[in-house]
Design brief:
Layout (H helix, E strand, L loop, with lengths): L4 H21 L12 H15 L4 H12 L32 H14 L6 H15 L19 H7 L7 H9 L5 H8 L6 E3 L1 H8 L14 H10 L8 E3 L12
Antiparallel strand pairs: 1-2
Helix pairs in contact: 2-4, 2-5, 3-5
Bound molecules: protoporphyrin IX containing FE (HEM) and 2-acetamido-2-deoxy-beta-D-glucopyranose.
Catalytic activity: 2 a phenolic donor + H2O2 = 2 a phenolic radical donor + 2 H2O
Cofactor: Ca(2+); heme b
GO molecular function: heme binding; lactoperoxidase activity; metal ion binding; peroxidase activity
Length: about 260
């Protein structure tokens, strides 16, 4: 049977209604009757997690970012399969880098004890990211709730969608445009690097092999910063941990 114009319009219409329904359901009060304590439970859990590990705030926030860039904010970053090592968390930008999985499980357990089967993991990631940022000194924002959890998680999609640290400005703008964010959004969101930590790996190229030239440092880098990073990250020192800035536990304006 030929694919008629009418069929095409009904398919398109159906798609739009799905999108419309999905969005209409999102609300800050989504759990106010099904799990009225959800938000306070998450906040208490985040408080206690950060009290014993204040350096994890950045890690918890980044989980939400890496979740949202791949298939939308659907908790696909959390999916674990005993038979696959090809899921989002196994992708190069995530492996040995994302932190806080165990703590997200802990928050989930607390919610399950109070309201079994109610709060989605995607919403947990979104609320935890907000609460961790606020606890670290950042401003708050309203979190729309009612996201559904996905069931598909592919390393290939994470690798394609997440921005590589080797991208230039134009490529970064393009990468964010792919998820509906513009250049201003990209710059503002990059301010998230005011807290948390990194490995030396992603900066080694700019310190010692810029543009593939052995020994060359990126000339556009602040020279004090470059010297400081070289001290912490000798050549080939891939896994050594460095801090994002001088106040890695605080969401502030030193960045
Ligand atoms: C603009 C493109 C971006 C690039 C290329 C980028 C790249 C990176 C890299 C390479 C690391 C260090 C990972 C490691 O060495 O293990 C990192 C860490 C981090 N990123 Fe980004 N990022 C970007 C955007 C964002 C955005 C939009 C957010 C959140 C809104 C974010 C939040 C963080 C946080 C909080 C950390 C520290 C994680 C921790 O403490 O475990 N980043 N990022
Ligand atoms: C980017 O989008 C935001 C929010 O939609 C808007 O306020 C801002 O003006 C836009 N910036 C650019 C450079 O288009």
């Amino acid at each position: 049977m030929a694919f008629s114009r009418t069929m095409l319009s009904s398919v398109v219409l159906a798609l739009f209604s799905l999108v419309a329904v999905g969005q209409a359901q999102l609300s800050t009060t989504f759990y106010s009757s099904s799990c009225p304590t959800a938000l306070s439970i998450v906040r208490q859990q985040v408080d206690s997690i950060l009290a014993s590990n204040p350096n994890l705030a950045g890690g918890l926030q980044r989980l939400h970012f890496h979740d949202c860039f791949v298939r939308g904010c659907d908790a696909s970053v959390l999916l674990f399969s005993a038979s696959s090592t090809n899921q989002e968390k196994d992708a190069q930008p995530n492996q040995n880098s994302l932190r806080g999985f165990q703590q997200i499980d802990q928050v989930n357990s607390a919610l399950e004890a109070a309201c079994p089967g109610v709060v989605s993991c995607a919403d947990i990631l979104a609320i935890v990211a907000r609460d961790a940022t606020v606890k670290a000194g950042g401003q708050t924002w309203p979190v729309l709730l009612g996201r559904r959890d996905g069931t598909v998680s592919l390393a290939s999609e994470a690798l394609a969608a997440l921005p590589s640290p080797l991208l230039n400005l134009g490529q970064l703008i393009q990468n964010f445009a792919a998820v509906g964010l513009n250049a201003s959004d990209m710059i503002v969101l990059s301010g998230a690097h005011t807290f948390g930590r990194a490995r030396c790996g992603p900066v080694l190229n700019r310190l010692y092999n810029f543009n593939g030239v052995n020994g060359q440092t990126d000339p556009s880098m602040d020279s004090t910063l470059a010297a400081n990073l070289k001290k912490q990250c000798p050549p080939n020192e891939v896994t050594t941990i460095i801090t994002m800035d001088s106040s890695p536990n605080v969401f502030d304006r030193t960045y």
